[in-house]
Amino acid sequence: MNRLFYFILTTAFVSILLSACSAEAVRKDWLIDSQSFRSEVSVSPDGKDLTLSNGLAARTFRTAPNLATTGLYQLSAGQNHLRAVRPEGCLVIDGVSFNIGGMAGQPVQNYLLPSWIDDLASDPGSFQYTGYSVQRIQKRFEWARRTEWMSQDADWPPPGIELILHFDAPEKRPVKGMKAHVHYELYDGLPLMCKWISLENHSGRAVVLNRFTSEIMAATEGSTHVEIKDGWTLPNIHIETDYAFANAVYDGEEAHTVHWVRDTTYTTQLSYLLNTPCLLEVRPAAGPEQVIPDGQTFETFRTWELLYDSYDRERKSLSKRKMYRTIAPWAMENPVIMHVRRADPESVKQAIDQCAETGFEMVILTFGSGFNMESGDPAYYARMKELADYAHGRHVALGGYSLLASRAVDDETDVINPRTGQRGGFARFGHSPCLGSKWGLEYFRKITELYQVSGMDMIEHDGSYPGDFCASEKHPGHRSYPDSQWNQWQIISDFYKWCRSQGIYLNVPDWYFLNGSNKAPMGYRETNWSLPRAYQEIIERQNVYDGTWDFTPSMGWMFVPLTEYHGGGEAATIEPLHEHLDHYGQRLANLFGAGVQACYRGARLYDTDSTKAVVKGWVDFYKKYRPILDSDIIHLRRPDGQDWDGILHVNPALPQKGLLMVYNPLDVPVEKEIDVPLYYTGLTGRAIVREQDLDANTYRLARDYTIRLKIRIPARGYNWYVIAG
After folding, report:
1. Following DSSP, what letter does each residue of 524-560 receive, concatenated?
2. 6 falls in which pLDDT band (50, 70, 90)?
3. How far is residue 618 from each of residues 102, 217, 521, 628, measured CA to CA in Å?
4. For residue 639, pLDDT beyond 50
5. Cβ 628 vs Cβ 621: under 8 Å
6. Exposure string (b/e) for 340-354, b if CB count within 10 Å is 16 or more?
7. How crowded is residue 160: how many other Cβ atoms within 10 Å of its Cβ?
8. pLDDT grade, residue 15 (50/70/90)?
9. Rounded to whole angstroms, how far apart are CA atoms 50 and 161?
10. What CA–CA distances, in Å, run from 390 to 12, 363, 384, 503?
11. What confidence tens digit (pLDDT) does each residue in 467-525 have?
12. What's the CA gap between 64 and 41, in Å, rounded?
């Protein structure tokens, strides 16, 4: 009777808690108003169950006979993503595998009933749960924010709760005396969790952590099929780690960490061959093979789990963009950038002066300019300091370009192919220096020294570390193949975190946002800039339209070659600028109208007063509307050259709730009525719409939160409409 009473009490407690949270999530849309969704940890009346919840997402745990996750809920969608119990993680230490927590004995793997949990058994050979602690979320690293480039404030660290689950190792070698801590962060205002493991060594000797799996989730299937299938729909969860490097857009598999695999223990699944990818394992491809001295602690990388509440593409994209603003808020820094082609003082000062005159905020000494970040010469540092001081005197930031991984250095330095024992044929770019080589360690020392002495503000780090392994056993920064990827990732991410702490802006064409980088390519093919100018205009808008499914406007850069780039001759080139002012103005309208900054590469921003007026006019436009232009984009019509195209910026927290940008690629004016979706502006009754600076008109919102708006766009031109409540 006593056991039945506790089962009913616990089940009722969890049911009431989750039902209340789900009701709150339905009443308020967190993508419009997230203020009421606060994170907390609650305990069931019998003390057996923990719940980490913020009203949008919840993770539940049973704490006896050992700890295991028993539910992963998307509350507004009413979805439990968990179908079976698994360990909280797995560690391979000195060649021996140990689970952290977990329980066994579930009768089927298709679903989990509360009535089964008391009958599950603990493995005495796994790390055993001892208790928990709770604290506010802590900073991952320091951020010296550049508020002059940000249109919106951001909390750092983000608000929310960290739940830490404590485990003791079993009484057996090699782990006797060790402790594991499983960390869960839950963020206020969005259905997002973060997980990682820390391992304390109190064994009395050094141990080697050969492998780890920091998340093991038996998830509800995203799709089910009896027969063989090449492609599967995965569970509706975005999984991302900060152990990422190789792509301009995040891809967990490419980044070697996120693995949706077959679950061969799930013998009652629909797939006859047990092929359903419904078991999530988050782990490095190899290693980390890290030595943990006695008394020291090792931390795994971090894994973020965003629980989508819909399959709608725009809503999923908005959810992910809100995630990045929360956990990588430095990506909201969005300076207006020029790339100057020459690094001699006269050319740099001219670029700085033109930036100051037009409102540009940063000068980058571009690739091929002659800037040498690896100089190591104190006299060179002094010259760079003079230029940085000159730029700062004109309220302009100064930085430069360096190529890292996509080049060869020498036999001693480059990553070694484990199959041949030689360099070449193994690295992502064919050849690449190993960051753990003597050259690699010296490279980072020199860069750090240059920026400390010169006070420069920005690094464009091209061909950043792409995740290469290295089989060398002679490099001082790693021992052999298994630890080489982890150690190189640690070197580059520590450097980027240092840059973040110093306020040094980072353009990095790989996915280092969660380790401190500010911006990556929005998405373009460089050889397209050799096409005729008219082609470039439309393709540029396509790139922005497509790129902002994954990026906020401030996260991605584009490229404007003011001088010839990759060929194409006069037909592709903007210089002389005043002779192609209509095209130059269209490019400025494309980019500033999207809130997307480009690298304007050339010797100058303007060549005549009329050119200067056009450039300054668009910079002034951007700065006037900066908060709404830096806000989220709703995708209306993709550019195709056959009709109008457009995007809608939205932000319910601003007085200007929306800004509609529309473009016309045709040789005749466009006048037509379009439906403008205003749901994500937060407006519910009426909208006040102003065409540029003309008189405002009031519109009633339809039941689907749209208004019917007549737009006017001149031939081969653009227009914008500002929307308020």
Report:
1. --GGGGGS-HHHHHHHHHHHHHHHTTTS-GGGEEEEE
2. very low
3. 58, 49, 22, 15
4. yes
5. no
6. bbbbeeebbbbbbbb
7. 23
8. low
9. 14
10. 68, 12, 10, 18
11. 999 999 999 999 999 999 999 999 999 999 999 999 999 999 999 999 999 999 998 89
12. 17
**DSSP per-residue string spanning 69-89:** EEEEEETTTTEE-EEE---SE
Q: Is residue 89 within 8 Å of 213, Cβ to Cβ?
A: yes
Hey, what are 641's tokens?
A: 């050259």
Q: Where are any strands of DSSP class E within 544-678?
A: 556-561, 597-602, 632-637, 645-650, 656-664, 670-677
Structure token digits, residue 489: 């990732």
> If residue 134 lies in a helix (H) or strand (E), which one and from where to where?
strand 128-136
557 with 458: CB under 8 angstroms? Answer: no
Could you give the CA distance from residue 324 to residue 213 in angstroms, rounded to a whole number?
24
Euclidean distance between CA atoms 278 and 223, whole angstroms? 9
Count, residues in the chain: 725
Distances from the Cα of 674 to the Cαs of 355, 663, 692, 697, in angstroms?
A: 38, 13, 17, 16
pLDDT band at 9 (very low <50, low <70, confident <90, very high): very low
Q: Rounded to whole angstroms, how far apart are CA atoms 688 and 660?
A: 13
**Residue pair 229/276 in contact by the 8 Å Cβ criterion:** no
Digit-coded pLDDT (tens) for 397-443:
999 999 999 899 999 999 999 999 999 888 888 899 999 999 999 99
User: Quick one: pLDDT band at residue 5, thresholds 50, 70, 90?
Assistant: very low
Q: What is the pTM of this model?
A: 0.95
- 326 in helix, strand or coil? helix
Q: Is 494 exposed, middle or buried (0-12, 13-18, 19+ CB in 10 A)?
A: middle
| Alpha-carbon gap, residue 135 to 39, rounded angstroms | 11
Per DSSP (E only), the strands in 366-502 are 397-403, 458-462
Task: Indicate the helix (H) or strand (E) that contains 356.
Answer: helix 345-358
Instruction: Say if residues 548 and 635 touch (Cβ distance below 8 Å).
Output: yes
The pLDDT assigned to 641 comes to 97
Q: Looking at residue 21, what is its pLDDT?
A: 52
Tell whether the model's pLDDT for residue 715 goes beyond 60: yes
According to the model, what pLDDT value does residue 27 have?
64
C-alpha to C-alpha distance for 556 and 561, rounded to whole angstroms: 17
Task: State how far Cα 373 lies from the chain centre.
Answer: 27
Say if residues 564 and 571 touch (Cβ distance below 8 Å).
no
Task: Identify the three-state secondary structure at position 622.
Answer: helix
Q: Could you give the CA distance from residue 288 to residue 242 in angstroms, rounded to a whole number? A: 15
